[in-house]
Amino acid sequence: MKHTKFMTAAIGLAFVGAFAVNAQAADMPKFTIVNDTIPASLTGKPGDAANGRKVAIDRKKGNCLACHVMPIPEQQFHGHVGPDLHGVAKRYDEATLRMRVVDPKVLNEDTMMPSFFTTGQHRVTKKFEGKTILGAQEVEDVIAYLKTLM
Amino acid sequence: MNFKTIITTIAVLGTGITLAACQMDAYQAPNPNGSELWSGYKTATAETRAMQDDDFANPGMPMVDSAAALYNKKDGEANMSCADCHGAVDDPKGGSKGLPMKGVSARYPVYDADTKKPINVELRINKCRTKYQKAKEYKYESDAMLGMTGLIALQSRGIPMMSTADNPSDELNAAWKAGEAFYYERRGQLNMSCKHCHEDHQGELIRAEVLSQGQSNGFPTYRLKWSKLGSLHRRFRGCNGNIRAEPYGYGSDEYLNLETYLAWRGRGLPMEGPSVRK
Question: ∠ at Cα B49 (B123, B201), nearest 5°?
Fold first, then answer.
């Protein structure tokens, strides 16, 4: 019985391992920059604006409120480090917004804003090494949400 | 005017010009802080300031008081106390050997000829403990070490930080340069450098937090978030962790270099340790 249990656990671990590798591979940053914009969806699928709003609020995900004032009245204390995002969709089209979330350093190499869909930064903690801050679909969800800020 | 007077006049003038040149040399690097030099005291709440202003209300002081007892206690195989060499901690003459604690924290880190690296107050305490007292080192973030660095910082209250490490002839110049490079180097998954928060966006809000100028003059500091005194290197590690960067070790070369560089950025700021912060 012990043996069987061990086998089951081993198979389980192998499965989890394979899944983890797949998940990471799916989120490896692949995108095409055209004139400082990223026109194509990172996933080929449209984003979910409602989830994008949640990702934007989540301190462990987008954490956009750390630096930006946004039309999210139920959250207190919006940061003032970055520009106010009210009406951001009037100022930027989808391809530009995507560029600014994926890797804003392409537009301003000195910006404080993190690149939410790149890897390879210096001295990243083990927990986050090789990982992007947001997954590809999460980026698309945030873009869909930002597009509602007219 | 005889010949001797002329020679003396030339010598005096020459010395003056050389001194003036050295003076200019010492501050050749531009001030990177902006128009105003400020510590976190400026943006602290009235309640937090009041705690710092009153030693009886300062929650870091009990640990400092314990250290004051340790300071006078004989320790190690040599059976020596700190006071045996330095005199009473607040003796401006620094005992019979003339080694006062006053001004130490405002001057440190200094260059250690033995290691050819910067040495900060923590490491200096441990050097004294092993070299002279023949006692065991204090752990970097231990209560004894925090209390002792707090006690020593207290002797420099109000004294401006002084550093000339930007001067190419200063023994700390290599460390200063390495610290400066560290300050401007991006790191961590959030890929930020110290300057993004503490230079570019100082005084601005990250949610409800005001970004400080990142000055070191208040350490060790009692952080209400920690409910304890903490060292500058603990704060560095916290900052690094916040941007998802692997922190460096307590007393590591990287942090000693950064501490050396920050002492220069803060030159002119009066010492506040042990300070109280949010």
Answer: 75
| Domain identity same for B45 and B180 | yes
Which residue has better confidence, B216 or A17? B216
Instruction: Please tell me whether residues B177 and B271 are part of one structural domain.
Output: yes
Number of domains in chain B: 2
- Comparing C-alpha atoms, which of B274, B268, B272, B264 is closest to residue B108? B264
Least trusted range by pLDDT, from A52-56, B19-23, B45-49: B19-23
d(C-alpha B217, C-alpha B158), whole Å: 10
Per-residue pLDDT tens, chain A, 150 aa: give them.
344 444 444 444 444 444 444 444 445 789 999 999 999 999 999 999 999 999 999 999 999 999 999 999 999 999 999 999 999 999 999 999 999 999 999 999 999 999 999 999 999 999 999 999 999 999 999 999 999 999
B235 is in an annotated binding site: yes
SS3 A49: helix
Question: Do both B115 and B234 map to the same domain?
Answer: no
pLDDT attached to residue B31:
79
Closest Cβ–Cβ partner in B187, B197, B204 for A123: B187
Q: How far is B237 from chain A (nearest CA, A)?
A: 12
pTM: 0.87
Identify whether residues B46 and B166 lie together within a single domain. yes
Average pLDDT, chain B: 92
Q: Any known ligand binding at B201? A: no
- Among B210, B224, B239, B245, the one annotated catalytic: B239
Closest by CA position to B87, among listed B70, B101, B108, B68: B101
B31 part of a folded domain: no
**Do B48 and B182 reside in the same domain of the chain?**
yes
Q: In this structure, are B166 and B150 located in the same domain? A: no
Tell me the C-alpha to C-alpha distance, in Å, between residue B165 and each of B27, B116, B128, B194, B203.
9, 14, 24, 19, 26
B190: closest chain A residue by CA: A114
Test A79 with B185 for CB contact under 8 angstroms. no
Residue B32 lies in a domain: no
Q: Do B245 and A125 touch (CB under 8 A)?
A: yes
What pLDDT is attached to residue B15?
47
Q: Which one of B154, B188, B211 terminates a domain? A: B154
Q: What is the CATH number of the domain that holds B72?
A: 1.10.760.10
Would you call A67 and B208 a contact, using CB atoms and an 8 Å cutoff? no
- Tell me the residue range of the domain where B212 lies: 40-54+160-277
Q: Which residues contact B252 (CB under 8 A, 6 or more apart)?
A: B233
